[in-house]
Design a protein that fits this description.
The chain has helices spanning about 1-10, 15-30, 35-75. By secondary structure, it is mainly alpha-helical. Helix 2 (about 15-30) packs antiparallel against helix 3. It is rod-shaped, with a radius of gyration of 18 Å. The two termini are about 35 Å apart. It is found in: Cytoplasm.
């Protein structure tokens, strides 16, 4: 249920990653005011955190699936 809430309040992994790439591109291009640069930096930090959360969730699902497989193999 919490993953449903996460999906409703934050972008999915691919959307967050793509937006993060765009944020980095804009920051690297320069020419922004300090305020705009700071706002983009903060957005990039939030997007990076979102990506990390999605990846951590995926890792947990993989670990759980592998544990089931290992348990089935050990019982056989």
């Amino acid at each position: 249920m919490s993953s449903e809430t996460t999906r409703d309040t934050s972008p999915g992994y691919e959307a967050a990653r793509d937006e993060l790439v765009e944020v980095v591109r804009k920051l690297e291009a320069g020419g922004l005011s300090l305020e705009d640069s700071l706002a983009l930096w903060e957005r990039g930090e939030a997007l990076a955190k979102t990506c990390e959360q999605h990846l951590a969730g995926a890792r947990e699902r993989i670990d759980a699936a592998l544990a089931v497989v290992e348990e089935d193999v050990s019982e056989a």
